[in-house]
Amino acid sequence: MSIIPGTTLADQMYFVAPKVSLVQTPTIGLAAGVIYAGVGLKTGGGSGGIAYGVTTLGGEDGALTVGLGWPFVVGHGGSTSPWAMFGGELRSSDRTKLLAEVWKFPGADEMPGVFGIRFIGDRLGVDFGLMHVFGADMGSWPFVPWLDFVVHW
To answer: What's the predicted TM-score (pTM) here?
Structure first.
């Protein structure tokens, strides 16, 4: 969830992202999931997400990933045009990987992408990167910092 100073708990953004592995071999992964998010539900905000499928080819030292997802807005249904995601990772040490991802939305010329590093723990992963929107004027500082935490159950 977000932690935006000066806003109430009811106005913060939240999300959940369950994912199920359908096929998992040492060199091929196939999964499906949903990213569901909402914001300001008590003050007229909304919720929605994306249902997706993703394939990863490669192993622990390097992999390429391709995914397709169909966005939806609660109360308004879903899209028939999928979003696409292309990504890769390359192990740089026992506990770190270099990452890159780019997303393509139907009808949009701009493509958001992120590149960074993943710190790998036994139960916790931390990603730090910089996001850039290719094809967009992002002003004097062309990057937005990206930080996320992943807990492995």
So the answer is: 0.77
